[in-house]
Protein backbone atom coordinates (compact mmCIF):
# COMPACT_ATOMS: atom_id res chain seq x y z
CA UNK A 1 0.00 0.00 0.00
CA UNK A 2 1.26 3.49 -0.89
CA UNK A 3 1.96 5.81 2.04
CA UNK A 4 0.51 9.09 0.76
CA UNK A 5 2.14 11.12 3.54
CA UNK A 6 5.80 10.90 2.68
CA UNK A 7 6.10 12.94 -0.55
CA UNK A 8 7.50 16.39 0.25
CA UNK A 9 7.45 19.24 -2.24
CA UNK A 10 9.27 22.56 -2.45
CA UNK A 11 7.79 25.40 -4.48
CA UNK A 12 10.55 27.86 -5.36
CA UNK A 13 10.09 31.32 -6.76
CA UNK A 14 10.87 34.99 -6.71
CA UNK A 15 7.35 35.89 -5.57
CA UNK A 16 7.69 39.61 -6.37
CA UNK A 17 4.85 39.60 -5.24
CA UNK A 18 3.13 36.27 -4.51
CA UNK A 19 -0.24 36.02 -6.31
CA UNK A 20 -3.18 33.67 -6.96
CA UNK A 21 -1.40 32.27 -10.04
CA UNK A 22 1.17 30.85 -7.60
CA UNK A 23 -1.21 29.65 -4.91
CA UNK A 24 -4.30 28.29 -6.66
CA UNK A 25 -2.71 25.84 -9.14
CA UNK A 26 -0.56 24.41 -6.34
CA UNK A 27 -3.52 23.97 -3.99
CA UNK A 28 -5.29 22.08 -6.79
CA UNK A 29 -2.14 20.06 -7.57
CA UNK A 30 -1.88 19.07 -3.90
CA UNK A 31 -5.45 17.78 -3.99
CA UNK A 32 -4.91 15.95 -7.26
CA UNK A 33 -1.86 14.00 -6.13
CA UNK A 34 -2.35 13.78 -2.37
CA UNK A 35 0.34 16.23 -1.21
CA UNK A 36 -0.04 17.00 2.48
CA UNK A 37 2.43 19.88 2.62
CA UNK A 38 4.05 22.36 0.24
CA UNK A 39 7.20 24.18 1.30
CA UNK A 40 7.30 27.64 -0.28
CA UNK A 41 10.87 28.78 -0.80
CA UNK A 42 11.55 32.35 -1.91
CA UNK A 43 14.92 32.81 -3.57
CA UNK A 44 17.41 35.49 -2.60
CA UNK A 45 19.26 36.02 -5.85
CA UNK A 46 17.10 34.78 -8.76
CA UNK A 47 19.53 33.27 -11.27
CA UNK A 48 17.94 34.12 -14.63
CA UNK A 49 15.99 37.31 -14.43
CA UNK A 50 16.18 40.95 -13.38
CA UNK A 51 16.53 41.27 -9.62
CA UNK A 52 13.26 41.72 -7.70
CA UNK A 53 11.87 45.15 -6.81
CA UNK A 54 10.81 44.12 -3.29
CA UNK A 55 13.51 43.22 -0.76
CA UNK A 56 13.90 39.60 0.38
CA UNK A 57 12.33 40.59 3.71
CA UNK A 58 9.32 42.15 1.97
CA UNK A 59 8.84 39.13 -0.32
CA UNK A 60 9.05 36.81 2.67
CA UNK A 61 6.56 38.92 4.61
CA UNK A 62 4.09 38.91 1.69
CA UNK A 63 4.36 35.12 1.49
CA UNK A 64 3.75 34.80 5.22
CA UNK A 65 0.59 36.93 4.84
CA UNK A 66 -0.57 34.90 1.83
CA UNK A 67 -0.27 31.53 3.58
CA UNK A 68 -1.35 32.58 7.08
CA UNK A 69 -4.75 30.87 6.66
CA UNK A 70 -3.51 28.01 4.46
CA UNK A 71 -2.13 25.08 6.49
CA UNK A 72 -1.00 23.34 3.28
CA UNK A 73 1.91 25.77 3.00
CA UNK A 74 5.01 26.35 5.11
CA UNK A 75 7.84 28.78 4.43
CA UNK A 76 11.48 27.80 3.98
CA UNK A 77 14.18 30.46 4.25
CA UNK A 78 17.18 28.41 3.17
CA UNK A 79 17.77 30.31 -0.09
CA UNK A 80 17.20 33.67 1.60
CA UNK A 81 20.20 32.88 3.79
CA UNK A 82 22.52 32.41 0.80
CA UNK A 83 24.05 35.42 -0.97
CA UNK A 84 25.10 33.43 -4.02
CA UNK A 85 22.66 32.82 -6.93
CA UNK A 86 19.80 30.57 -5.82
CA UNK A 87 20.71 27.57 -7.98
CA UNK A 88 17.92 25.01 -7.63
CA UNK A 89 20.29 22.09 -8.28
CA UNK A 90 22.36 23.13 -5.24
CA UNK A 91 19.29 23.58 -3.04
CA UNK A 92 17.86 20.20 -4.01
CA UNK A 93 21.18 18.45 -3.41
CA UNK A 94 21.31 19.95 0.09
CA UNK A 95 17.70 18.99 0.76
CA UNK A 96 18.33 15.42 -0.42
CA UNK A 97 21.33 15.15 1.91
CA UNK A 98 19.12 16.22 4.83
CA UNK A 99 16.23 13.87 3.99
CA UNK A 100 18.28 10.78 3.12
CA UNK A 101 18.22 8.74 -0.09
CA UNK A 102 14.76 7.16 0.13
CA UNK A 103 12.28 9.90 0.83
CA UNK A 104 10.23 11.03 -2.22
CA UNK A 105 11.00 14.71 -2.85
CA UNK A 106 9.60 17.05 -5.50
CA UNK A 107 10.13 20.54 -6.88
CA UNK A 108 7.07 22.40 -8.19
CA UNK A 109 7.28 24.68 -11.23
CA UNK A 110 4.98 26.32 -13.77
CA UNK A 111 4.97 25.39 -17.46
CA UNK A 112 7.14 28.42 -18.35
CA UNK A 113 9.85 27.24 -15.96
CA UNK A 114 9.82 23.76 -17.48
CA UNK A 115 10.50 25.24 -20.93
CA UNK A 116 13.51 27.12 -19.57
CA UNK A 117 14.79 24.34 -17.35
CA UNK A 118 17.48 23.10 -19.77
CA UNK A 119 19.19 26.48 -19.34
CA UNK A 120 19.34 26.10 -15.53
CA UNK A 121 22.62 25.54 -13.72
CA UNK A 122 23.38 21.76 -13.74
CA UNK A 123 19.76 21.08 -14.68
CA UNK A 124 20.41 17.42 -15.44
CA UNK A 125 21.16 16.79 -11.73
CA UNK A 126 17.77 18.08 -10.60
CA UNK A 127 16.02 14.78 -11.32
CA UNK A 128 18.72 12.90 -9.40
CA UNK A 129 17.43 14.51 -6.24
CA UNK A 130 13.74 15.19 -6.84
CA UNK A 131 10.71 14.79 -9.05
CA UNK A 132 9.36 17.76 -10.98
CA UNK A 133 5.68 18.64 -10.63
CA UNK A 134 4.57 21.02 -13.38
CA UNK A 135 1.46 23.23 -13.24
CA UNK A 136 -0.14 24.50 -16.42
CA UNK A 137 0.24 28.15 -17.30
CA UNK A 138 -1.51 29.92 -20.20
CA UNK A 139 0.55 31.38 -23.03
CA UNK A 140 3.34 28.80 -23.12
CA UNK A 141 3.81 25.94 -25.62
CA UNK A 142 3.69 22.32 -24.50
CA UNK A 143 6.79 21.32 -26.42
CA UNK A 144 10.41 21.99 -25.49
CA UNK A 145 12.32 24.24 -27.91
CA UNK A 146 14.98 21.65 -28.76
CA UNK A 147 14.46 18.05 -29.76
CA UNK A 148 17.07 16.72 -27.31
CA UNK A 149 15.29 18.47 -24.43
CA UNK A 150 11.93 17.09 -25.56
CA UNK A 151 13.52 13.61 -25.53
CA UNK A 152 14.79 14.26 -21.98
CA UNK A 153 11.27 15.30 -20.96
CA UNK A 154 9.63 12.29 -22.63
CA UNK A 155 12.09 9.88 -20.99
CA UNK A 156 11.23 11.11 -17.51
CA UNK A 157 7.48 11.73 -17.88
CA UNK A 158 5.04 9.80 -15.75
CA UNK A 159 1.26 9.82 -15.70
CA UNK A 160 1.21 7.60 -12.65
CA UNK A 161 0.81 9.47 -9.36
CA UNK A 162 1.94 6.40 -7.46
CA UNK A 163 5.43 6.80 -9.00
CA UNK A 164 5.74 10.13 -7.20
CA UNK A 165 4.95 8.59 -3.84
CA UNK A 166 6.97 5.41 -4.18
CA UNK A 167 10.18 6.56 -5.95
CA UNK A 168 12.51 9.08 -4.32
CA UNK A 169 13.15 11.16 -7.47
CA UNK A 170 13.50 11.13 -11.25
CA UNK A 171 9.98 11.67 -12.64
CA UNK A 172 8.28 14.62 -14.31
CA UNK A 173 4.54 14.92 -13.76
CA UNK A 174 2.47 17.35 -15.87
CA UNK A 175 -0.50 18.14 -13.65
CA UNK A 176 -3.86 18.96 -15.21
CA UNK A 177 -4.30 22.12 -13.18
CA UNK A 178 -6.51 24.93 -14.52
CA UNK A 179 -5.03 28.01 -16.16
CA UNK A 180 -4.61 31.16 -14.11
CA UNK A 181 -3.62 34.05 -16.34
CA UNK A 182 -1.78 36.05 -13.66
CA UNK A 183 1.86 37.10 -13.40
CA UNK A 184 3.82 39.21 -10.95
CA UNK A 185 4.90 41.35 -13.93
CA UNK A 186 1.28 42.23 -14.75
CA UNK A 187 0.60 43.01 -11.09
CA UNK A 188 3.64 45.31 -10.84
CA UNK A 189 2.61 47.07 -14.07
CA UNK A 190 -1.01 47.50 -12.95
CA UNK A 191 0.06 48.87 -9.56
CA UNK A 192 2.41 51.29 -11.25
CA UNK A 193 -0.50 52.51 -13.39
CA UNK A 194 -2.79 52.77 -10.35
CA UNK A 195 -5.07 49.95 -11.61
CA UNK A 196 -6.95 47.51 -9.37
CA UNK A 197 -5.37 44.16 -8.54
CA UNK A 198 -8.15 42.96 -6.23
CA UNK A 199 -8.79 39.66 -8.02
CA UNK A 200 -5.12 38.84 -8.56
CA UNK A 201 -3.63 38.37 -5.09
CA UNK A 202 -4.72 37.96 -1.46
CA UNK A 203 -6.16 41.15 0.12
CA UNK A 204 -3.64 41.09 3.00
CA UNK A 205 -0.77 41.09 0.50
CA UNK A 206 -2.31 43.95 -1.47
CA UNK A 207 -2.82 46.00 1.73
CA UNK A 208 0.84 45.43 2.64
CA UNK A 209 1.98 46.51 -0.85
CA UNK A 210 0.02 49.75 -0.51
CA UNK A 211 1.23 50.34 3.06
CA UNK A 212 4.87 49.88 1.96
CA UNK A 213 4.42 51.92 -1.23
CA UNK A 214 5.77 48.98 -3.24
CA UNK A 215 5.74 48.74 -7.05
CA UNK A 216 4.49 52.30 -7.49
CA UNK A 217 7.53 53.51 -9.38
CA UNK A 218 8.32 52.31 -12.87
CA UNK A 219 11.07 49.64 -12.74
CA UNK A 220 12.99 51.71 -15.36
CA UNK A 221 12.79 54.94 -13.32
N1 LIG B 1 -0.05 31.97 -13.34
C1 LIG B 1 0.76 30.94 -13.08
N2 LIG B 1 0.38 29.67 -13.36
C2 LIG B 1 1.23 28.60 -13.11
N3 LIG B 1 2.48 28.74 -12.57
C3 LIG B 1 2.89 29.98 -12.26
C4 LIG B 1 2.07 31.14 -12.49
N4 LIG B 1 2.76 32.23 -12.08
C5 LIG B 1 3.96 31.79 -11.65
N5 LIG B 1 4.04 30.45 -11.74
C6 LIG B 1 5.19 29.61 -11.37
O1 LIG B 1 5.59 29.97 -10.06
C7 LIG B 1 7.01 29.89 -9.92
C8 LIG B 1 7.54 31.21 -9.40
O2 LIG B 1 7.23 32.20 -10.36
P1 LIG B 1 7.63 33.72 -10.22
O3 LIG B 1 7.80 34.07 -8.79
O4 LIG B 1 8.71 34.05 -11.18
O5 LIG B 1 6.24 34.42 -10.71
P2 LIG B 1 5.91 35.17 -12.06
O6 LIG B 1 4.50 35.62 -11.95
O7 LIG B 1 6.27 34.32 -13.23
O8 LIG B 1 6.91 36.42 -11.93
P3 LIG B 1 7.37 37.52 -12.99
O9 LIG B 1 6.17 37.99 -13.76
O10 LIG B 1 7.98 38.56 -12.09
O11 LIG B 1 8.40 36.84 -13.88
C9 LIG B 1 7.56 29.54 -11.32
O12 LIG B 1 7.82 28.14 -11.37
C10 LIG B 1 6.41 29.89 -12.26
O13 LIG B 1 6.40 29.06 -13.40
O1 LIG C 1 19.05 26.95 -10.84
C1 LIG C 1 18.85 27.69 -11.81
O2 LIG C 1 19.69 27.85 -12.71
C2 LIG C 1 17.51 28.40 -11.89
C3 LIG C 1 17.22 29.23 -12.99
C4 LIG C 1 15.99 29.88 -13.02
C5 LIG C 1 15.08 29.68 -11.97
N1 LIG C 1 15.41 28.87 -10.94
C6 LIG C 1 14.47 28.67 -9.81
O3 LIG C 1 13.19 28.36 -10.30
C7 LIG C 1 12.19 28.90 -9.44
C8 LIG C 1 11.26 29.79 -10.27
O4 LIG C 1 12.03 30.84 -10.79
P1 LIG C 1 11.41 32.28 -11.13
O5 LIG C 1 12.54 33.03 -11.76
O6 LIG C 1 10.27 32.00 -12.08
O7 LIG C 1 10.93 32.87 -9.85
C9 LIG C 1 12.95 29.67 -8.35
O8 LIG C 1 13.08 28.83 -7.22
C10 LIG C 1 14.30 29.93 -9.01
O9 LIG C 1 15.34 30.10 -8.04
C11 LIG C 1 16.59 28.23 -10.88
Automatic annotation (TrEMBL):
<keyword id="KW-0662">Pyridine nucleotide biosynthesis</keyword>
<dbReference type="GO" id="GO:0004515">
    <property type="term" value="F:nicotinate-nucleotide adenylyltransferase activity"/>
</dbReference>
<keyword id="KW-0548">Nucleotidyltransferase</keyword>
<keyword id="KW-0547">Nucleotide-binding</keyword>
<dbReference type="InterPro" id="IPR004821">
    <property type="entry name" value="Cyt_trans-like"/>
</dbReference>
<keyword id="KW-0067">ATP-binding</keyword>
<comment type="similarity">
    <text>Belongs to the NadD family.</text>
</comment>
<keyword id="KW-0520">NAD</keyword>
<keyword id="KW-0808">Transferase</keyword>
<dbReference type="Pfam" id="PF01467">
    <property type="entry name" value="CTP_transf_like"/>
</dbReference>
<dbReference type="InterPro" id="IPR005248">
    <property type="entry name" value="NadD/NMNAT"/>
</dbReference>
<protein>
    <recommendedName>
        <fullName>Probable nicotinate-nucleotide adenylyltransferase</fullName>
        <ecNumber>2.7.7.18</ecNumber>
    </recommendedName>
</protein>
<comment type="pathway">
    <text>Cofactor biosynthesis; NAD(+) biosynthesis; deamido-NAD(+) from nicotinate D-ribonucleotide: step 1/1.</text>
</comment>
<feature type="domain" description="Cytidyltransferase-like">
    <location>
        <begin position="10"/>
        <end position="190"/>
    </location>
</feature>
<dbReference type="InterPro" id="IPR014729">
    <property type="entry name" value="Rossmann-like_a/b/a_fold"/>
</dbReference>
<comment type="function">
    <text>Catalyzes the reversible adenylation of nicotinate mononucleotide (NaMN) to nicotinic acid adenine dinucleotide (NaAD).</text>
</comment>
Amino acid sequence: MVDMNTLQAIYGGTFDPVHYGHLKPVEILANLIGLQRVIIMPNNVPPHRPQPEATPAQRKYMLALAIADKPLFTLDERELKRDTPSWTSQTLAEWRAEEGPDRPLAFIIGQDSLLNLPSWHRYETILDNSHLLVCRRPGYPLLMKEEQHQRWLDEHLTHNVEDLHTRPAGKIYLAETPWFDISATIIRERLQQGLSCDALLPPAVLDYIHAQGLYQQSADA
